[in-house]
Amino acid sequence: MSFIPGQPVTAVVQRIEIRKLRQGEHLILGFSIGGGIDQDPGQNPFSEDKSDKGIYVTRVTPEGPAEVAGLMMGDKVMQVNGWDMTMVTHDQARKRLTKKNEDVVRLLVASLLCNASPFVQTEFAI
């Protein structure tokens, strides 16, 4: 997902519902995050201007709950179960995502579609 000046860039905001997979006592989401207001935004590979301190999806487990739900590497997490995630620390984000008493996590994410053709229309389930 790289930005090329002069090429079309489309940001798509979508709701994704992930049903956690139960493995013994653990509830598995199937993805990892990076970022947060306490992290160095220069290390964020998904921030085009290297100043974004948002929470980003850094890994998605193949065939895991997140991938099945449609989450993609590079998605920016805007909300978790209605909670604003735009100005949180990495640890605050992790705690919101891994609450033990929640079997379902509802995310609002922004996906950046670089070099998208203006003639291609994509539909997303909400």
From TrEMBL:
<feature type="domain" description="PDZ">
    <location>
        <begin position="15"/>
        <end position="104"/>
    </location>
</feature>
<keyword id="KW-0007">Acetylation</keyword>
<keyword id="KW-1003">Cell membrane</keyword>
<dbReference type="GO" id="GO:0016055">
    <property type="term" value="P:Wnt signaling pathway"/>
</dbReference>
<dbReference type="GO" id="GO:0043113">
    <property type="term" value="P:receptor clustering"/>
</dbReference>
<dbReference type="GO" id="GO:0005634">
    <property type="term" value="C:nucleus"/>
</dbReference>
<protein>
    <recommendedName>
        <fullName>Tax1-binding protein 3</fullName>
    </recommendedName>
</protein>
<keyword id="KW-0472">Membrane</keyword>
<dbReference type="GO" id="GO:0005737">
    <property type="term" value="C:cytoplasm"/>
</dbReference>
<keyword id="KW-0597">Phosphoprotein</keyword>
<dbReference type="InterPro" id="IPR050614">
    <property type="entry name" value="Synaptic_Scaffolding_LAP-MAGUK"/>
</dbReference>
<dbReference type="GO" id="GO:0045197">
    <property type="term" value="P:establishment or maintenance of epithelial cell apical/basal polarity"/>
</dbReference>
<dbReference type="GO" id="GO:0098968">
    <property type="term" value="P:neurotransmitter receptor transport postsynaptic membrane to endosome"/>
</dbReference>
<dbReference type="Pfam" id="PF00595">
    <property type="entry name" value="PDZ"/>
</dbReference>
<dbReference type="GO" id="GO:0005912">
    <property type="term" value="C:adherens junction"/>
</dbReference>
<dbReference type="InterPro" id="IPR036034">
    <property type="entry name" value="PDZ_sf"/>
</dbReference>
<dbReference type="GO" id="GO:0009966">
    <property type="term" value="P:regulation of signal transduction"/>
</dbReference>
<keyword id="KW-0539">Nucleus</keyword>
<dbReference type="GO" id="GO:0019901">
    <property type="term" value="F:protein kinase binding"/>
</dbReference>
<keyword id="KW-0963">Cytoplasm</keyword>
<dbReference type="GO" id="GO:0098887">
    <property type="term" value="P:neurotransmitter receptor transport, endosome to postsynaptic membrane"/>
</dbReference>
<dbReference type="GO" id="GO:0016323">
    <property type="term" value="C:basolateral plasma membrane"/>
</dbReference>
<dbReference type="GO" id="GO:0045211">
    <property type="term" value="C:postsynaptic membrane"/>
</dbReference>
<dbReference type="GO" id="GO:0014069">
    <property type="term" value="C:postsynaptic density"/>
</dbReference>
<dbReference type="GO" id="GO:0098609">
    <property type="term" value="P:cell-cell adhesion"/>
</dbReference>
<keyword id="KW-0879">Wnt signaling pathway</keyword>
<dbReference type="InterPro" id="IPR001478">
    <property type="entry name" value="PDZ"/>
</dbReference>
